[in-house]
Design goal:
The protein is mainly beta. The chain contains one helix and six strands. Strands 1-3-4-6-5 form a five-stranded mixed β-barrel. Keywords: DNA replication, DNA-binding, Primosome.
Length: 101
């Protein structure tokens, strides 16, 4: 496979719906669990469609520390990648960066 075919990147504009407490990994790295909610209108197959999605997310390090101080309901543009760990059934967005939308 070429590097482009193996890319795993997600850019999502979403509201912070749930914000866990800042915690630390066994290695001492700050970590934060959160839930994001997205709502928009898109065109699919030539027709308008209302889209809603809720997604679990996690952030580590300085990104987690920055996110921990943000208000519930605040709107951001998140950049990261999707991963499913252990016995989880759904992918989680690993946030690498975020900025005001």
């Amino acid at each position: 496979m070429t590097p482009a075919a193996t890319a795993n990147q997600l850019l999502l504009t979403a509201h912070v719906a749930e914000l866990g407490a800042l915690r630390f990994t066994p290695a001492g790295l700050p970590a934060l669990d959160l839930k994001l909610e997205h709502e928009s209108k898109v065109i699919e197959a030539g027709k308008p469609r209302q889209v809603k999605a809720a997604l679990k997310a996690v952030a580590f390090g300085a990104v987690a520390e920055r996110l921990a101080t943000q208000a519930l309901g605040s709107l951001w543009r998140f950049r990261g990648f999707l991963a499913t760990s252990g016995t989880a059934k759904h992918p989680v967005l690993h946030i690498q960066d975020f900025q005001q939308d």
